[in-house]
Amino acid sequence: MPWFHGKISGPQAASKLRPMEDGLFLVRESIRHPGDFVLCLCFRQNVFHYRVIFRDNKLTIDHKEFFYNLIDMIEFHSKNKGALATVLLKPKKKDGAKSAETKLLKSGWLLDLSKLTLGQAIGEGEFGAVFEGEYGGQRVAIKNIKCDVTAQAFLEETSVMTNLCHKNLVQLLGVILHNGLYIITELMTKGNLVNFLRSRGRLAVSATQLLRFALDVCEGMEHLESKKLLHRDLAARNILVSEDSVAKVSDFGLAVAKVSSTTPDNLKLPVKWTAPEALKTRKITTHSDVWSYGVLLWEIFSYGRQPYPKMTVSEVRECVDQGYRMESPDECPPDVYTIMTSCWETDPKKRPSFHKLRDKLEQEFGRYEA
User: Which residue range or ranges hold the Protein kinase domain (predicted)?
Assistant: First the structure.
């Protein structure tokens, strides 16, 4: 939006708001608290800085009125003073700024709302509701993100996403800026891998098919690795299965980060899938993605069981630190279990790359097909 000035300091904001007209405003990202927004508002020759509080996936200034995104908040306070010194009368437009909408339009990733047909809800993800629908006659999945903080995080990754196209990554088709953010992807009709395995079990899914799923995910992650990108939340729940039973890595658009990434303190890490060194330092690397892949392999060959069965999160953390590793799932091929445990090396540098993992899995797959 034109009134959003990005990461600037309080004094910089005050400078931009001169001459100070009552009701002139802008929104900035806090330098002291990255990821937090601040509403800067002129009134009686003063600039008031209102920190926008992020709570329960909603935004508020006064803990009375809550909004899904900044646009709704600005619209409300343009008509209602609330806890502000005055209503918002005039946005201070950022000089020469291209809005997210303009950038998306020029890059070809902004889709046409009139071509979208929203169908029934097919899930509730961590970041918002997921719907089935159609776009221009093609069946698609539609994820609606109403929260500005999450939507902004995704929009910042669109330049990365445009370079990612692989048969084992869920394909992003584009985004629509309406009622928050709509993310349009290919539709994966057989749902996530956990539910697929649990609902079918050993009688319907062969060991060969399990290996195929393991290879599919590994190839998708190898592609991310080759681009020096991370996933940060690799687990069977984030793997989707297509109509023709191909497994594809999903939700990487919201998680992806280059080379290494420090996770914000307010973001909960999935302890059962996270490498011990990442839990301590909150720094995610490709080595910690490999650890998560080992846990995902365990999920696949246990037909969707919860990892570390009957153990609490705190027990898992303590036991893994002391060297405990999960036992092999029932009827899991010994060589596959060896691959799993190689992903769980205490020293991150001793873990194999996804490229090496793919080689090992292809050898195992070849034995099954022979």
Answer: 116-366
What DSSP line would sit under 15-79, residue for residue? HHT-S--TTEEEEEE-SSSTT-EEEEEEETTEEEEEEEEEETTEEESSSSS-BSSHHHHHHHHTT
What structural domains and CATH numbers belong to the chain? 4-88 (3.30.505.10), 100-186 (3.30.200.20), 193-362 (1.10.510.10)
Please give the share of the chain, as a percent, with pLDDT higher than 90. 59
Condensed to tens digits (0 to 9), the pLDDT of residues 261-293 reads 555 544 578 999 999 999 998 888 999 999 999
Selected catalytic residue, list 72, 233, 251, 289: 233
> Does the annotation list 106 as a binding residue?
no
Q: Is 233 a catalytic residue?
A: yes
Q: Count CB atoms within 10 A of the CB of residue 38.
A: 21
- Residue appearing with tokens 């000089």: 95
